[in-house]
Amino acid sequence: MNNDIIINIQQLVKRFPIGKGEFTALKGITTSFRKGEFAGLIGPSGSGKTTLLNIIGSLDMPSEGEVTVLDVSVGSLTAKQAALLRKEKLGFIFQSYNLLQVHTVFENVEFPLLLLHYNASERKKMVMEALDWVGLTDKAQSKPSQLSGGECQRVAIARAMVKKPVLVLADEPTANLDATNSHTILRTMEKLNKELQTTFIFATHDEKVISYLHRKVFLDDGYIVKDEWVKND
Amino acid sequence: MIKFLLQGLLRDKSRSHLPIMVVAVGVMLSVFMHAYITGIMNDTIEMNAAFSYGHVKVLTKGYADNMSQFPNDMALDNTDVLVANLKKQLPNIEWVERIQFGGLIDVPNDKGETVAQGPVIGIGIDLFGKETTETKRLRIHESMVEGRMPSKPSEILVSNDFAKKLGIQMGNTVTLMASTMYGGMAYQNFVVVGTVSFGVQVLDRGTIIADIQDVRDALDMDNASGEILGFFSQGYYSDKEADKAKSIFYAQQDNVSIQDEFTPILLTFREQGDMGTFVDLSHSMGAIITFVFIIAMSIVLWNAGLLGGIRRYGEFGVRLAMGETKHHVFASLLYESFFVGIIGSIIGTAFGLLFAWLLQEYGLDMSDEMKGSSMMMPTVLKARITMADYYIGFIPGIFSTLLGAALAGIGIYKRKTSQLFKELEA
């Protein structure tokens, strides 16, 4: 196995119970992702891209097959071990930002560090650094309700990046943004990918996002139909 | 982390202000209701104790066996010695002699011919003693309707309704016909100087109140009393004090043979009539109220928690995605609810005590509504604050918030992590 490979997926099948029957969302996926990739799972609704992202993020378990993330088999993880993996190694960015509305920008970004038990001075330093990456140091004490959509998503990126995770999973991160904000967000993530060597995997069908990807994994009806490298990392 | 959770809780009014208000109102009602019920129960107990049962009562075994019939042929004899002994043995109890009796009151005209007659229940109490506490205990001054208090022997009070029914005027002489201690017929004239109304049908139907010495003279009960009532110096009945008094009483009785029907025995308040059930009910009332409020508040807080919880599933999803475990999220919900419960309970207890204190000090006069009541109950309803009121509200306050949060939080476990995560997007 290539030492750079951080995600290895072999014959992944995922089924969901629907009534008395089952729905198969992923039908034998085999692929891998290397450290530092800026890749996307691309496909229409129902193609299985979010399901695959969830399994990579240990938010869901495979029905069959093997998924290894950072040398850990996702299928064998207990809930506690899965939470530990997410806490220490993974970052998530959501379509609708999902900031904690009653907390300030600083506190939102600080939250993952609280879970990792960093002390106050370390947290402050790391939060301000993360806000600097996304250009929001002046908004540290603002509440999410005082920010624009683009700014909210930049806070979400800072929150995902503050602990410097190995892997960031972003599910439709630009779906609620206009074109200008989308490009700003994507440039920010691309910059972080280059500077910190953080692996980004997107689930998207947004052309703007697709245009930034270095690797495009196309899914349709639970299968990988095309795996395309656009740029060398 | 705790600071972070508290910040979120305090800033999100729907998570803190509303539940705290719900808890505070529930706790306030619990505390107030507990003090109110305790007040009514205790006043009822004390009223029954004052008129009939005492906190403890010394009487003969024979008298006790037929107490409802006032069998004065079984009365206690040599009561001056007995009372002196009781005062020595149990100095913390105030001992008073009483004679209760049944009879017929005859109301004559100027010529001595009977105008009206009616059955009465009489109570002979110490009306004229220098240090008598009986008039105060029976609230006779407050219950006076017409006339004045007796000031010399042979003067009596009758219940107002009875006086009206028989056409008795103040200053009229009436004749009591009853049975002496030895079974003979007793006739004694009394002058009615006042009427009383206790607001309780059972007392107002036909009662006469006379000085105990007059009753002794009338019923040939020299140095005898039907019963000796004991009242605790603390001012209210307590099973513990009663049991203690009972054990001291029997421990110091010489040559007691309970086979002898004239042997003095001691009955506690709860051992007389149905008073035991009433005392138990008054004790369990606090638990009943607490239980009812726990259930009611839990349902309210469960629903509030469910609504809040559903609204927060997105937040839970984010926290799970960031690496919190479901246990941790659930525990944080319980911590939050504990905090809400504590704050709500403190506020609710403070207000509950305030309202209870107002009712304790000023009371609620229900005399008009309770006219004709067949039960011996106080007409001014008063709360009574006890030690329990300082903490009893915390039981429903904390328990129901925890239960409500726990029930609402079950949704975290019922949903798959990815499902909660997905609800972020909703």
The major sheet of chain A is characterized as:
6 strands, mixed
State the end-to-end CA separation of chain A.
19 Å
Order of helices and strands of chain A: EEEHEEHEHHHEHEHEE
Shape of chain B: elongated
Which pair of chains has the greatest number of interface residues, and how are they split between the two chains?
Answer: A-B, 31 and 26 residues
Number of helices of chain B: 15
Helix content of chain A: 25-40%
Could you outline the blueprint of secondary structure elements for this entry?
The complex is a heterodimer of chains A (233) and B (426).
Chain A (H helix, E strand, L loop, with lengths): L4 E14 L2 E14 L3 E5 L6 H8 L7 E6 L2 E2 L5 H11 E4 L11 H11 L4 H14 L15 H13 L5 E5 L7 H18 L2 E6 L2 H6 L2 E6 L2 E7 L4
Parallel strand pairs in A: 3-8, 3-9, 6-7, 7-8
Antiparallel strand pairs in A: 1-2, 1-4, 4-5, 9-10
Helix pairs in contact in A: 3-4, 3-5, 4-5, 5-6
Chain B lengths: L1 H10 L1 H41 L2 E5 H5 L13 H11 L3 E16 L5 E12 L8 H4 L2 H4 E4 L7 E5 H7 L6 E7 L5 E12 L4 H4 L2 E5 H8 L7 E6 L6 H14 L11 E5 L6 H47 L4 H37 L1 E2 L14 E2 L6 H4 L2 H21 L2 H6 L4
Parallel strand pairs in B: 3-8, 5-7
Antiparallel strand pairs in B: 1-9, 1-10, 2-3, 2-6, 2-9, 4-7, 5-8, 6-7, 11-12
Helix pairs in contact in B: 2-11, 2-12, 2-14, 11-14, 12-14
What would your notes on this structure say?
The complex is a heterodimer of chains A (233) and B (426). Chain A is an alpha/beta fold and 233 residues long. Chain A is built from seven helices and ten strands. In chain A, the strands form two sheets. In chain A, strands 6-7-8-3-9-10 form a six-stranded mixed sheet. The longest helix of chain A has 18 residues, at 179-196. Chain B is α+β, with helices and mostly antiparallel strands. Chains A and B meet through helix 2 and helix 3 of A and helix 1, helix 11 and helix 15 of B.
